Here is the input.
Amino acid sequence: MKKILFVVAFVCAANFVSAQDAKADVKKLIQLTGASAQMDMAKKQVSGMIPADKKEAFLKDFDALMKPFQDKQEQFYLKEFTADEIKQIIKFYESPLGKKFTDKNVKLAEQNMADTQEMMGKMQELMMKYMQ
Here is the structure.
């Protein structure tokens, strides 16, 4: 009986450690893909509009607001990829080509943000033309 309990406890502990390792790998993957850099860019841009005396409180609330979003991203990766696949993707993003890909994607996201703002302005003008 003690052996069975020991085996069950060992299996549970191994699964817990494996899940913790996978979660840590997913956090690393999100950082390597540049997704966290994009979020930091948006955070910096938005916080720049907040008065200095309120910025610290805003940043605390911003981080709390984003936590569920980040958790959902992590859960997506854990659901859609095996631990081994996540390790392989990390290996790619740590390679020279993966680093270049990430760098270019961050630049593309910055450009897309600017292009989207410009396009939305033109879209408003077009809508106003037809709403009068």
Observations:
- The CA atoms of residues 92 and 98 lie 5 Å apart.
- Confidence is low (pLDDT under 50) at residues 10-17.
- The chain has five helices and no strands.
